[in-house]
Amino acid sequence: MSTSPTSLQNNQVKDVDTLIEAFERLGYVTDRALATSVYLVIRLRKPFLIEGHAGLGKTEVAKVLAAMLGTRLIRLQCYEGLDVSSAVYEWNYQKQLLAIKIQEKTQQAVEEKEKHIFGKEFLLERPLLQSILEENASPVLLIDEIDRADEAFEAFLLELLSDFQISVPEMGTIKAKHIPYVILTSNRTRELSDALKRRCLYHWIDYPSVEKELKIVRARLPGVEEELSRQVVRFVQAARQLDLAKPPGVTETLDCALSVMSLGKHKLDIQTVEETLGCVTKSMEDTAKLRASGIERLLS
Amino acid sequence: MPHEEPDRSAASIIEFCQFARTQGLFVGIHQTIAAIEATQSIGDVDRQVFTFTLRTALTSSKEEWDLFDQLFEAFWDRSQRRPGPGSGEPKEGKISTRRPKAGPRTFGSLSSAEGEGKAVTGASAQQRIQKMDFSNIGHNDLAALEQVSLRLFRRMSLRLSRKRKIRNLADRVDVRRTIRRSIPRGGDPIVLAFQGRKPQKHRLVIFLDISGSMNPYSLFLVRFAFALQKYFKRVDSFLFSTDVVEITDVLRTRDLPDALRGLSQRAAGWAGGTKIGESLSDFNRQYGRKLLSTNTVFIILSDGWDTGEPEMLAAQLHRTRRRVQKLIWLNPLLGLKEYKPITRGMSAALPYVDVFAPAHNLESLLALERFL
Hints:
The complex is a heterodimer of chains A (300) and B (372). Chain A is an alpha/beta fold and 300 residues long. Chain A has helices at residues 16-25, 32-44, 58-69, 84-87, 93-103, 110-117, 127-133, 151-163, 194-199, 210-220, 226-240, 250-262, 270-280, 284-292, 295-299; strands at residues 48-52, 73-77, 89-91, 123-125, 140-144, 165-168, 172-175, 181-186, 201-205. In chain A, the strands form three sheets. Chain A has a five-stranded parallel beta sheet with strand order 2-5-8-1-9, with helices on both faces. The longest helix of chain A is centred in the last third of the chain and has 15 residues, at 226-240. The termini of chain A are far apart. Chain B has 372 residues and is an alpha/beta fold. Chain B contains 14 helices and eight strands. Classes of the chains: A alpha/beta (300), B alpha/beta (372). Chain A binds chain B through residues 15-16, 32-33, 36-37, 39-40, 43-44, 46, 49, 51, 80, 85, 90-91, 93, 96-97, 100-101, 103-104, 110, 113-114, 117, 187-191, 194, 197-204, 243, 245, 285, and chain B through 26, 28, 30-31, 34, 37-38, 41-43, 45, 48-49, 52-53, 55-57, 59-62, 64-66, 175-176, 179, 182-184, 186-187, 285, 289-291, 293-295, 315, 319.
């Protein structure tokens, strides 16, 4: 599986600096603090909780980690009301009903029939079960926006993360062959339970410094002009100081730079900002606030 | 780097963990072990990466994350000079510990009524008390009101939880169980299994005005907030006048008099001026993202006498309204016949309020049941 030139075996990640380089080759600019945490995730196989505002590359960490290790990324997007049947497994009811109909005329005993329709071929594997069933190598399991799921699901997750096994009543307990690298992200829309937090390594992603953000823009948009990237980053960084309801993240910086480029402009002036304002602020109030504080001032 | 290299033995890490614990970091034995494992597996690294290693292993929230560097410096600089760093005198700038310490006992003005518990109140007396305006209650009736209110609030909470269950009876066929039950009948789903919806508890945020004009009502409304906690999944309570003070942890106790005592210490601005808009803005900034969601009911208890800008209030209410399921404004003055909500603040606020109701006596508070 790990034949692509960018992928490394986990024992090839010798130290933090190797990891920074590998991440950068994959287009993810990171700092030593985050690299240290990721390195420990690889070594200790502990779950990793990343918190921070939206659009700062939390989800990306998991994707890049999977790409670097050349393993599969399994993603579970959390939402309110997420339950076991969409997170872990579900039986394929239609298929089961058909199978029952087909078996009707046979002379099999009820127990046999039951065993048949609760076989593996009728099981729909959802992300958490998939991550445990992975045959070849440890996958990266991304549990995205865990703060959106409810507490009950969190409690269930706790059990999974300590034993890495899932029990399906009709089949028995399934234990992980390869313990997945688990990455949880949260936007802090609610406090997670202490028990879950304490099981994880923790990292808080903050807004990047000007230098780091410049580096990110250049890494992600190789065609960007030096002067433009500088202007965009400066503008977004200034906008972050404005106490907006949704401060722009790095995603917004990239969007803004990309749309300026697509408009065929080479400079960020007032008119261009007006045209691309939707990339930076995402609500009417924020847009008004930004205008009120003077776009010219933010640009200088 | 000017510092000496820190000692990285397991013993010194354990010492550091103990030190961090005294400084408000929530470090359990699991984290200590994780920290030791982490430093061992990271090998020989510079001081910076060593800091990062311990930080990622020992912290578990942004607050702890922000505090960590300071603790790290304090401990490793100190341990160069002083033996036995475990003593840990509290430092300035320390984050508040999670569990509020039970403060020295002072006498809350209203707490004496509990525990006597024998005064008999007949039905008519009870009704009279229910309709009595909080601001007119004399000292004699206070004890009775206390008892009645506690009892009624409790009954109200029971009724609420029951209502929810009946309403949410089976509404969807549970295919999985249905198939299971159909096996003995050759696959015909004769007996259907149903799936009821799980009772979805709402979250409640209470935003209570304690400025001077609310003085006669504040204490009763705190009680109300306390009673509401029983049947909501989560209740977060805040006091405000010119500042916002969180009192969730104080109210999260079984004993009401205790809570009231804690409150009198917490609330700095009891009976001061009112800046509703600014307080709400503070709240939105500090807690909004965390506490407001589509299953949150937001209750403001205030008389609407605002010394701040009405535009500010309107903007902040609008912002809050968009995030929550329902915004309820309880105004004690609404109980007065001649009162009309035409103060600048109140009229600016009304467009964003879903329910505008009185809160001047027990009856009006109990009537709220309809909206929750």
